[in-house]
Amino acid sequence: MPGIASNRVAPPLYQRQAPPRPRSEAKRARIIEAATQHFAEHGYHAARVGDIAVALGIAKGSIFQHFGSKDGLFFEVYKRAVRTFPKYLDAPPDVREAGIFEVLRYWLVRTEHLLHEDWIPYRISLLGNYGTDLVLKREINRFLISEDPYGTVSFVRYGLERRELRKDMDIEMIVSILDWMMERFQDALLTAELDPGLFRRQGELAEKKEARIQQFLGVLRRAIGATPTATVSGARLQSQRR
User: Fold this and answer.
1) What one-character DSSP code corresponds to residue 46?
2) What is the DSSP-derived secondary structure letter of residue 89?
């Protein structure tokens, strides 16, 4: 499978960059910080590397020297943004103890804070997921799989150890289903805040949103959750261990 460039032999220019020297780390950090704000405000396609350079008071060529291309710069901005998001198992201990579907509910009901507290990294995340071209999106997908910034693999293993997830399904399939469905549903919840017409009705009530979350979790539970018998056995095993 080709990477961000169409040439299988020669990787993208920014992938061939040597590790930055210590003295250039501070400059790279300044560029990424300014680029994050610029991409969040203007979007990927309307963003201009030249404008970022002007804002920083440096030459545009200096940015290309560090990141290779506009794609390379955005890729670093994207990685920095998603690394700021919490992992599934960062939920409070009592929530984790209540089970993995309670953990999912915990994060879903707190989705709105992304708009009010973390709108810049979330905006960057949206741009990476929906607002870039296919080759850049492919590289972003590779990063998400290799680094697993949300801790989905550890979370799924946690659910398997507690016998809350299906044993007859490949773990990679469960991880993929969880990533796909949670990402799309959270995006839908947040987009509803920005565009109340998304779900065909304006002025969503809190009760309606809670019901929608419960319905979503019900669908997810039927897709990847263990049978009730296995879940009860898992709960007994956890009790015996304590």
Assistant:
1) T
2) G
